[in-house]
Amino acid sequence: MAPSVSGSVVGRGTIALVSGPGVSVGSGASEDGAAGPSSLDLSGAEELAETFRVLADPGRVRVILALLEAGEMHVGGLATAAGLSETACSHALRLLRQGRVVKRRKVGRSALYSLDDEHVSGLLGLAREHIDHARAGH
What are phi and psi of 106, to 5 degrees? Predict the structure, then answer.
């Protein structure tokens, strides 16, 4: 069953959310057209788009996948695992930290990186499911 839009543009500057099987992101507006508690305002849409922008680079995705597998890594190990130079990996980590996808823990003079929380894994898993579903012709 395909996701469905529970509303369209609601009021001024509020967008209703999409819902479907396994997706619990909200129900949009109330019957009187007022934005419901789960509606996404335009600034929320900007934040959501920024999260997808941060994830929209193959090198950064490889860094995330390496962290999913290892849990916590130094820049050098991450660079090797992701097939990036240390400079490119550091840049990717900076962007991922700014996007609250990755966090850093200082240990003496070095830093260890890990995923910020379990939502990152869920986002990648859902994207993978979507790709597999689309490839199957659904």
Answer: -80, 135
Residue 112 is classified by DSSP as E
Rounded distance, CA 116 to CA 137, Å? 34
- The fold of the 57-120 domain, in CATH, is Arc Repressor Mutant, subunit A (1.10.10)
Domains of the chain, residue spans: 4-46, 57-120
The reply to whether the predicted model has a pTM over 0.70 is: no
How far apart CA 87 and CA 12 sit, in angstroms, is: 44
Angle among Cα 96, 114, 93 to the nearest 5 degrees reads 30
Per-residue pLDDT of the chain (138 residues; tens, 9 = 90+): 444 333 333 333 433 344 444 433 444 444 455 554 456 687 888 888 998 999 999 999 999 999 999 999 999 999 999 999 999 999 999 999 999 999 999 999 999 999 998 888 898 899 999 999 999 987
How far apart, in whole angstroms, are the C-alpha atoms of residue 111 and residue 63? 15
